[in-house]
Specification:
Layout: H1 2-19, E1 25-31, E2 35-43, E3 54-62, E4 67-71, E5 77-81, E6 86-92, E7 99-107, E8 112-119, E9 130-135
Antiparallel strand pairs: 1-2, 1-9, 2-3, 3-4, 3-5, 5-6, 6-7, 7-8, 8-9
Protein name: Lipocalin-like domain-containing protein
Organism: Algoriphagus aestuariicola
């Protein structure tokens, strides 16, 4: 009986892992020509024992380039995977140097994610509060 439960647990764990999406890559949202937002996400190496499943950078350009919120040299996005296609974490605005809580939901109808700011930080920021991003 113990071996049956062990095997069942093993297959359940594999199945749960398979349901989780890999968000690695570049994701983009653009509104007309005035505003655009792009993120780059990479999966962390489990051997490094980091506190996050994904790290990333971002760049938001608003008002035809008059407002820029980009952090491309250091990680600004920190995400944990919650399976069922849901990821949550934080983004640090390069404009205000404030942290904002975010949630990303992988949409099963294609290479898209729903980007949501769930809790705003202090100061101004130039990235969307809620939009659908497409993978490039």
């Amino acid at each position: 009986m113990k071996s049956y439960l062990s095997i069942l647990s093993y297959f359940f764990a594999i199945n749960q892992f398979a349901l989780c999406q890999d968000l690695s890559g570049t994701w983009r949202w653009a509104e007309e020509k005035d505003n655009l937002f792009e993120i780059f996400l990479e999966k962390t190496d489990p051997d490094q024992k980091l506190n996050y499943d994904f790290l990333g950078t971002h760049c938001g350009v608003y008002y035809n380039g008059e407002r820029i919120d980009c952090m491309l040299e250091d990680f600004s996005i920190f995400l944990d995977r919650h399976c069922q296609n849901i990821f949550s974490g934080k983004i640090t605005s390069a404009y205000s140097h404030s942290d904002f809580e975010i949630r990303l939901t992988y949409l099963v109808d294609g290479q898209k994610i729903l980007w949501e700011v769930t809790k705003k930080g202090d100061g101004q920021f130039y990235f969307p509060v809620k939009e659908v991003l497409k993978q490039n």
